[in-house]
Amino acid sequence: MPHYITLMRWTSQGRMGLPAWRDRVEEGERLITENGGTLVGVYVTLGRYDVVEIFEAETDEAALEIITKLQRTGSAETETLRAFTRDEAEAIIRKL
Length: 96
Description:
96 residues; alpha+beta; four-stranded antiparallel β-sheet; 4 helices; 4 strands; 42% helix; globular
């Protein structure tokens, strides 16, 4: 199943709502699961981004739906990357 890495920066609204962050993570996991995906991990980070979330989704379309639903709260600005596992990348590179 394809992997996606979402880089998040908390908005001022998101920072004000940090006491409810755990609830937001659980809601995100529920949205991902309802759309046929799996939450792989959530990491609070130092540096340019506040949070990195890794999830699996069946298709790019499902991933877009998940991300769009997650952004509705306005608590974070996101950038999502389609990630390829080592095996997936090697299979593609072998075709070159």
